[in-house]
Amino acid sequence: MSDVIISSFAVTGAVSPPPSKSEAHRALIAAALAGEGTIQDLPQSADIEATRRAVSGLGVCVEDIREGVSLSRRIPSLAGEAEVDCGECGTTLRLILPVYAALGIPARFTGSGRLPQRPLSVYQELLPRHGVTLQTEPEAGAGDCLPLRLSGRLTGGEYCLPGDISSQFVSGLLLALPLCREDSVIRLTSPLESAGYVRMTLEAMRRAGVQVETEKDGWRIPGGQVYRPFRYTVEGDWSQAAFLLAAGIVGGELIVPGLNTASFQGDREILDLLRAFGADISVDRAGIRCRKAPLCGITIDASQIPDLVPVLAAVASLAQGRTYILGAARLRLKESDRLAAMARGLNALGAEVEERPDGLIVYGKPRLTGGTASACNDHRVAMSLAVAALGCREPVTIVGADCVSKSWPLFFHDFIRMGGEGHVFQRG
C-alpha cells in the first residue's frame, strides 16, 4: 500500500483523460463475440485487464498492437471449465457472466476485494429459469456471491428485472441474448438508472451489426444473431475527466482536451453539474476550459450518474452553502461504501459532511484545513480526495492511494503535471 502527500497548488496547463473504461469493456466483449477486430486507444487499468482475461475464455486471443489491441480467433480449450478471474471489477463480472451462459461455456468465476460481496441477485433469480445453473462454492464467505460456478446454456424468452439495482445486469443480458436461438424481451419493472451505460452497450452492439428494438418498458432482441468484426476507437472518458474538470474549477485553470461533447457516456453530465455550481467553463477547439470561480451549493439527483458522486462531494465541500446529493444508495455496494468513505475522508480534511441513507449533505467552506484521509481501497475516493486537497490550507496525505491503478494508474503522474508550485510525494 502506498500513500500520497499533496501540497496545495494552483493547477494550470492541459491534461487529457484516459480513454473510456466503460466503452472499452463493451467493445472488448463485442469484438470477442465477433471473433476478431481491432480496438484503438484501449485504456490501461486493472479493470480492463480483468475483461481481457475474461474474453480470452470465449475462444479469442487479445494481442497488443501499437495503437491498441487486436482480437483473433483461436482454438478454445475443450478440457473442463473456464476459470474467469474478474479481479475487483463488477462490470467485467456482470457483463461477461450471461455471455458465457449464452454460449454454453461452463465457467468458474472468482474475484477479489469487495467484488465477492457485490450483489448478483438478478442473475441468480433469472438465469436458472432459462436453462442455467449457478452454484456458489462452499468456501464462499457469508453473503458472498463468489466463487461461482456456471453450467448449462441460456435460452431466450422474457426477462423481467428492476432497473434501479444496476444497469450492468441489463447490459449483460443485452450482450448475451442475441446469441440465443429464441427471440427475447427484456422488461423493466422499475425505472432504469444509469441509462447512459445501457446506451453505450447498445451502441457497441450496433457497431457489431446486432439489432435490438427499443420498446416502452424495455427491449426486444431477435435471437440467432451473429456479431460482426469491427474497428473501434475508444473515446475520452467523461467519468475520469470529471476529476480534471473539478480540479480546474477549485484549483486554478485547466484545459481538458480529447472529449466528445455528444458522447453516449452519461457522465458527460458533469459539465452541466459543474456549471450549476457556478463554475466558469467554456468549450473551444483546444478542449474544455475550466477556471476557478466562486461556487454555490446545489441539489443533485445522482440516480443516473452514480460514479460522479465522490468528485461532486469534493467540489461541494468547497462550494458556499449546502449541497444535497440524493438517489445514491447504490454507492454503498461499490469498491467501498462510497457515501461513508467520502463523508469520513472529507470530514478528516476539515469539511462538514453528513451521511443520509441514499446520499450526502455537504456544508461547503471556502477552504478546508488538510490532514490525513483514507482512500478506502477505492480509486474514485482517492482521486476525489486529491481534488479536495487543492482547496486545503495544509498538505493532505491520502492513505492507500495506489488503488487508482484500478482505473487510472497514471493519475498522480498526471496530477503532478497540472501544477508547478506543489508536490506529490509517494511513500510505500
What does this structure look like?
The protein is an alpha+beta fold and 428 residues long. Helices cover 30% and strands 24% of the residues. It is built from twelve helices and 23 strands. The protein has a four-stranded mixed beta sheet. A hairpin with a 2-residue loop joins strand 19 and strand 20. Helix 1 packs parallel to helix 2, helix 5 runs parallel beside helix 6 and helix 9 runs parallel beside helix 11. The longest helix has 14 residues. The radius of gyration is 21 Å and the shape is globular. It starts with a strand and ends with a strand. The model has no long low-confidence stretch (mean pLDDT 93).
Brief account:
The protein has 428 residues and is α+β, with helices and mostly antiparallel strands. It has helices at 21-34, 46-56, 90-103, 121-126, 167-176, 195-207, 238-251, 270-277, 309-316, 338-348, 379-389, 411-417; strands at 3-6, 37-40, 60-65, 68-73, 82-85, 107-110, 132-136, 148-152, 157-161, 184-188, 213-215, 218-221, 231-233, 253-256, 280-284, 287-291, 299-301, 321-326, 352-356, 359-364, 371-374, 396-399, 424-427. It is globular and about 60 Å long.
What tags apply to this protein structure?
428 residues; alpha+beta; 4-stranded mixed β-sheet; 12 helices; 23 strands; 30% helix
